[in-house]
Design brief:
It contains 1 helix and no strands. By secondary structure, it is mostly helical. The protein is rod-shaped. The N and C termini lie far apart (126 Å). It is 86% helix and 0% strand.
């Protein structure tokens, strides 16, 4: 009686195909990934410049909001004075 081994001697066609396909994918993907990281530096510089512009605009908006609040307070004081004077006239 012949005994068969429990480990397969040769790989199936499907397994070989998967291994070959994976090797091809890795061979193509590796150079693409390397080239993309090099060209990203240009975009990083653009993003940094835009972030600085956003920060400057935000700072200016904060200053203008404070100025608007000051002017609103002045308008309210003048309106109060107008009301007092109007009541004295009437």
């Amino acid at each position: 009686m012949k005994l068969r081994t429990t480990t397969p001697v040769s790989k199936s066609l499907r397994t070989r195909f998967v291994l070959v396909a994976a090797t091809i994918i890795f061979a193509v993907a590796a150079p693409i990934q390397i080239s993309q990281s090099v060209s990203a530096d240009k975009y990083d510089d653009q993003i940094a410049a835009l972030q600085q512009a956003i920060d400057a605009a935000q700072s200016q908006a904060t200053q203008m909001a404070a100025q608007a609040q000051t002017l609103q307070t002045a308008v309210a004081q003048i309106q109060s004075q107008v009301t007092i004077i109007q009541s004295q006239i009437d």
